[in-house]
Amino acid sequence: MNVDAFDASVADLLCRLTCLPFADGTFSLVECHHTIEHLGPIHAIYALSECFRVMKPRGRLVIETPDIEASFGSFLEDRSAGSRASLLTWIFGLDSPGMGHRMLYPARLLGKMLREAGFDRVRIREPRTHLYREGLRVTAVRSARTEAEVLARWRQKALAGGVIDADNHLEALELERVFVGNLRRYHSNPAAGKNRILDNVVCSPLGVLLWCEAMREAGCSIAELETIANLARALARLDLPRRLVRDLQATIESPAGPGDAYDRVFSRARAAVGRLACRPEREVASSVRGAFPARGGPAVRAFTRHLVLTQVRRMRDRGTKCMALGRHAQAARLLRLAVNSGIESYYATVNLAMLDAMFSRLGEAVELYRTALTCRAGEGVDAVAREELVKCLLHLRRREEAYEEAERFCTARLGNLWKAIILYHGGDPAGCHAKLARLARTGFRHEHLERYLEASRGDGGESSVPLPPLRTEPLVTGEGVHHLF
C-alpha cells in the first residue's frame, strides 16, 4: 500500500501522514522514503505517532531522509557552482507543491523523536535509495508500551477534535511540552502524577476528555478515570479556556498586583478545579460561572502561556506602531496593558518609559527603565535602556544615581563615556575630559564623544553643552523565537 499527499502517479491512496485512514495495528512494516523532510517539526511528531498507531507490536519502521550534516559538509567542501546548486535542491527541495523540504532532521534528533513516539531499537543504517546524494536511513521497532499507545491514540483524537493545530508550531509545541509532558509524568507514576492531570484539565478540558477515551480504548483501567472524565466533560461544556482568557484580559485591565497575570489566573483556576474534582455537574457549573463569569470572545483551543503571550505581544506591537505614528494616548494604553500582564516585559516597558519621558513624567520613566533592565534582554538592547535611564536621572539632577547606573553597563567603555558626561554636567569638565581622552585613544566611537570632548577642553561649565536629549523613537523588537525543539 503506497500513500502520498500530492503525487498519485504511483500512490494507491492520497492522504496525509499525520492522519492515516487505517485501523490500529494494521501493518507489520512501514517505510517512509524521503517523506519526513517534507514535514515541519510538529507534523513530524504527529506523523511518527500515526506510524506507531497503525503498526503491530514489534513492527518495523524504516525512514530514509537527507543527511543534513553530511549534506552541508559537502556543500562547504565542494566549491563548484553546479554541485552546490544540486546540493541546495537536495537540502531544500523544489519550489513546487509537495516538493519543498520543511526541515531536515539530524540522526540524533530523529532518534530522540522516534523513542518519544514509542519506538525501540533505533539504528542508523546505510541508505538504500537516492544513492546519488548524502542520505540517512534509520530503523526502529514499535514497542508495546501502554503509554505510547495511549499517546498515539490521543494525538489522533486531538488533531481531529481541534485540540491541536499542527500548523501553529509554537502553540502545538507548548502543548507537547506541557500537556503531553504531564501525561507522560502521570503514566510513569500515576499516584504522583494525578495533579498533572488536573493541570491539564485547566489547560484543555476537551484534551483531557479525549485522553480518557484513549485510555479506555487502550485497555487502561484506573479508579479515578471516570471522575476525571466527568469533570473534564463539564468544564468543556462550560468552555473553561475561553472564560480564563476573558478573565486574564480583565486582570490586565485592572491589575491586582505585580507578577505574571497568566500564572495568577491559572493558579486560581487550578485551585477551583481541585475543589470540584468529585462534585456533581450542576455544582461545577455554578462554581465556574461564579468565579469566571465572562464567556464571550473568540474560540480558544487551550489556555496556554503561548496563547496569552501572543495576545500580549500583539498589544505591544500595536502600541509600538501607534507610538511611531504619534498616537501617543493610544500607544500608552496598549503598552500599559502589555506591561500589566507581567508576561512580555522588556520592549513594552522600555517604550512606555520613553512615552513617560516624552511627557515629562521622568520619575515614572526611571522606574520603568529599571524594571526593564531586570529582564536581561541582551547586551545591545540593555544598553539602550540604561542610556535612557542615565539621561532621565541627569534631567532630574540625580547625578549620584546616574553615576551608579553608568557603572552597570555591560560594556566598560560605554559606561565610562556616561560617567564622563555625568562629571561634565556635575561641574567637573577636567575629569570629563580626562576620561573621554582615554576613550578616544582606544578608538571608541559614540554620537556624544566628540561634542563633550571639545566642550570639556576648557572650563565652559555645565551650560556649554545641553543635557543629552531623551529618545523618542520606539524600540522595535527584532526578537527571535527560542524554543526547545
Attribute tags:
alpha/beta, about 60% helix, about 475 residues, four-stranded mixed β-sheet, two-stranded parallel ribbon, disordered C terminus, 6 strands
Structural commentary:
This protein has 485 residues and is α/β, with parallel strands linked by helices. The chain is 58% helix and 8% strand. It is built from 21 helices and 6 strands. The chain has helices at 41-54, 68-77, 81-92, 107-117, 146-160, 169-188, 190-203, 205-217, 225-237, 240-253, 261-276, 281-291, 305-324, 328-341, 346-358, 362-373, 379-395, 399-406, 412-425, 429-441, 449-455; strands at 3-4, 13-14, 27-33, 55-66, 119-125, 135-142. The strands form 2 sheets. It has a 4-stranded mixed sheet. A two-stranded parallel ribbon has the order 1-2. Helix 1 links the parallel strand 3 and strand 4. Helix 1 packs across helix 5, helix 14 (328-341) packs antiparallel against helix 15 and helix 19 runs antiparallel to helix 20 (429-441). The radius of gyration is 29 Å and the shape is flat. Residues 480-484 have low confidence and may be disordered.
Q: What is the N-to-C succession of helices and strands?
A: EEEHEHHHEEHHHHHHHHHHHHHHHHH
For the largest beta sheet, what order do the strands appear in spatially? 3-4-6-5
Would you count the extended β strands for me? 6
Shape: flat
Rg value: 29 Å
Separate helix tally: 21
Mean pLDDT: 91
User: Which structural class is indicated by helix and strand composition?
Assistant: alpha/beta
For this entry, what is the oligomeric state of its chains? single chain
Task: Give the CA-CA distance, first to last residue.
Answer: 32 Å
Largest sheet: 4 strands, mixed
Helix content: 55-70%
Sheet-strand content, in percent, reads 5-15%
| Poorly predicted runs of 5 or more residues | 480-484
